Amino acid sequence: MRIISQIDTLLTQDEPVSLLDIVYQDEYLVAINKPSGLLVHRSWLDKGATQFAMQMLRDQLGQYVYPIHRLDRPTSGVLLFALSSDVARLMSEQFAERAPTKMYYALVRGWCGDGELDYPLKEELDKIADKHASQAATFKEAVTQYQCLQQVELPFAVGRYATARFSLMQLMPKTGRKHQLRRHLAHLRHPIIGDTSHGDGKQNAFSKQQLNNHRLLLHAAQLAFTHPITQHATVIDAPLPADFERVLKTCGIDRFSV
Predict the structure, then answer these.
(1) Which backbone phi and psi does 163 adopt, to 5 degrees?
(2) Handedness of CA 224, 172, 99, 95 (dihedral sign)
(3) Choice between 254 and 128, residue whose per-residue pLDDT is larger
(4) Using CA atoms, how far apart are residues 12 and 129, in angstroms rounded to an integer?
């Protein structure tokens, strides 16, 4: 089932969000197109944050919502909530079994090709959020399929490179490790533009100065799963945000649409 996006507004990390973009809703589930910079819920990681997707959606709908999965704060895209604890449990079971499929778009450094990366990742533990967890982090299976959609080269020297090369990638994670896509692309030596944790500082500075980019260029564009109540195949699409699309057009990628 698909529903047309309700809002088409430009949202950036520094602008307050007044109304969330609901891209899917029925009596059991609701999904938003989360803007980059918005936390899913309150977190010790940022005590100064004043807006949270879960609370905002609760206020917008006038009822409690249950988050099914997470998106990193700087990542935009499909974020699914249940409207009851029973539906939340059923959907959580699907995610635990890796039944839903996810598709992301990312702009990365260099000319990246197609492939599948099977590269285990060590658990990332946060000093604050995970202070009570065992600090003996282990490596866990992590698999990502990736496909290059477009490549572009700009006549600007960046770091040791004579020109600025970028690839627009379609990413399909088969597992759900913390920062998996960001870490996997960094491992491939094609870090995602705007990634301040795993990316390339010089490329990020270039994208900020020359492309007017102020966000992580990673977007969760599609989520597909079996509806827990109707058992229908359900596909939720989240249109590419205006700030992401603007950067692509600045690069010369102007025929792209979700």
Answers:
(1) -135, 165
(2) negative
(3) 254
(4) 26
Q: Which residues pair with 73 in a beta bridge?
A: none
127, HSE (Cβ side, Cα atoms, 13 Å): 1
72 is catalytic: yes
Higher-pLDDT residue of 116, 48: 116
CATH of domain 22-251: 3.30.2350.10
The model's pTM: 0.87
C-alpha span between 186 and 35 (Å, rounded): 23
C-alpha pair distances (Å), 115 with each of 9, 22, 78, 144? 34, 33, 24, 9
Q: Per-domain residue ranges for the chain? A: 22-251
Q: CA–CA separation, 199 vs 183, rounded Å?
A: 9
Q: Is the dihedral of CA 61, 67, 73, 75 positive or negative?
A: negative
How many angstroms separate the CA atoms of 176 and 174, rounded? 7
Q: Exposure of 104 by Cβ count < 10 A (0-12 exposed, 13-18 middle, 19+ buried)?
A: buried
Q: What does the pLDDT average to over 168-197?
A: 97
Q: Determine the pLDDT at residue 9.
A: 35
Annotated catalytic residue, options 14, 46, 72, 114: 72
Instruction: Name residue, tokens 């870490």.
Output: 183
Q: Is 93 helix (H, G, I), strand (E, B) or coil?
A: helix
| DSSP structure string for 134-194 | -S---EE--EEEEEEEEEEEES--BTTBSSEEEEEEEEEESS--TTHHHHHHHHTT-PBTT
